[in-house]
Design goal:
This is Beta-hexosaminidase. It catalyses: Hydrolysis of terminal non-reducing N-acetyl-D-hexosamine residues in N-acetyl-beta-D-hexosaminides. It comes from Stutzerimonas stutzeri (strain ATCC 17588 / DSM 5190 / CCUG 11256 / JCM 5965 / LMG 11199 / NBRC 14165 / NCIMB 11358 / Stanier 221) (Pseudomonas stutzeri). One of its GO terms (molecular function) is beta-N-acetylhexosaminidase activity. Pathway: Cell wall biogenesis; peptidoglycan recycling. With 332 residues, the chain is an alpha/beta fold. It has one domain: TIM Barrel, CATH 3.20.20. The protein is built from ten helices and ten strands. An eight-stranded parallel beta sheet has the order 6-3-2-1-10-9-8-7, covered by helices on one side. The protein has a two-stranded antiparallel ribbon with strand order 4-5. Helix 2 links the parallel strand 2 and strand 3. Helix 3 packs parallel to helix 4 and helix 3 packs across helix 10. The longest helix is centred in the N-terminal third of the chain and has 18 residues. The radius of gyration is 19 Å and the shape is globular.
Length: 332
């Protein structure tokens, strides 16, 4: 079986226990949260320390903009993506946001941000809300495509989330098990449109911890129907599939952490995330060791492709992007 584990650490530097875990070949990635971040220099030093232990490890963060932005002090405070739609030059500004975000994340030694959000804003889901670019799927596709174009220009792979769409289900999958009662035909006419339109552009996709009972009784991230029949075969997606955090309440239907990661990989995920619970991460790691997993070769494509030079803020593109975002009153 192909697969690997992405986990997290507790602080702003590596402990001996962290180093031991990161040396395990089944661990393929590490995600940073706000608790791990003090300043650009500190993050850069932490990434360097991690690379000294495992040069091949994927280093990720959630840096969408708006309220989901882990890198804050010393970084541009990007707007929530929903704010872009009100601007007259929204696609250009979306591309600028994607490029600025990716440049800053790459500059401190991280590989990628789990972005962009492809969910639609149906004015129903508080956990999605302004994280979505739009409620209209065609407008959303235009803006998301531009954002990805900016990310790619900076050298960052793009991860679309949360397949096949988390914007309708009202429950928050961090603390509950959301259910979306719509049919597959209804989803194809609406929430699936961004994923269908951008399946050849995205480098990775993260499925939702949402149950769509008219399609499958399992949440999308544990469903071969969703990940194999629909995402891989129908949409023709060839990139990486990351599970959403398997410690979230929406994932608990699959059992304990060992059962969750085995189910996620069995459904088609290339890497399972187990965050904010070291005991669960160790249980998942033990399961992967028992299963004798090997990492997917596709994961190499998620490495940052062009580290930004130290003086990237003098780049004319940076100055133009920041100027445009300020003129549109999207950043301070």
């Amino acid at each position: 079986m192909h697969g690997s584990l992405m986990l997290d650490i507790a602080g702003t530097w590596l402990t001996a226990e962290d180093r031991h875990l990161l040396r395990q070949p089944e661990v393929g990635g590490l995600i940073l949260f706000a608790r791990n971040i003090e300043s650009p220099r500190q993050v850069e030093e932490l990434c360097r320390a991690i690379r000294a232990v495992r040069p091949d490890l994927l280093l990720a963060v959630d840096q969408e903009g708006g309220r989901v932005q882990r890198l804050r002090q010393g970084f541009v405070r990007l707007p929530a993506m929903r704010e872009l739609a009100r601007c007259t030059d929204a696609p250009r500004l979306a591309e600028a946001c994607g490029w600025v975000m990716a440049s800053e994340v790459l500059a401190v030694g991280l590989d990628f941000s789990f972005a962009p959000v492809l969910d639609l804003d149906h004015q129903r889901s508080a956990v999605v809300g302004a994280r979505a670019f739009e409620g209209d799927p065609q407008v959303a596709v235009t803006l998301i495509d531009a954002f990805i174009r900016g990310m790619h220009a900076a050298g960052m792979a793009a991860t679309g989330k949360h397949f096949p769409g988390h914007g309708w289900a009202e429950a928050d999958s961090h603390v509950a098990i959301p259910v979306d009662e719509r049919s597959l035909d209804e989803l194809r006419r609406c929430d699936l449109i961004p994923f269908m339109a951008l399946s050849g552009t995205l480098d990775a996709i993260m499925p939702a911890h949402v149950i769509y009972p008219q399609v499958d009784e399992q949440p999308a991230g544990f469903s071969r129907r969703w990940l194999q029949d629909i995402l891989r075969n129908e949409l023709g997606f060839k990139g990486v599939i990351f599970s959403d955090d398997l410690s979230m309440a929406g994932a608990h239907v699959a059992g304990d952490a060992a059962q969750r990661i085995e189910s996620a990989l069995g459904a088609g995920c290339d890497m399972g995330l187990v965050c904010n619970d070291r005991g669960a991460a160790e249980l998942a790691l033990t399961a992967l060791q028992r299963l004798k997993v090997t990492p997917s070769t596709a994961l190499a494509g998620m490495r940052g492709r062009a580290g930004c030079p130290a003086d990237y803020k003098q780049n004319p593109r940076w100055l133009d992007a920041i100027g445009a975002l300020k003129a549109a009153d999207l950043i301070d």
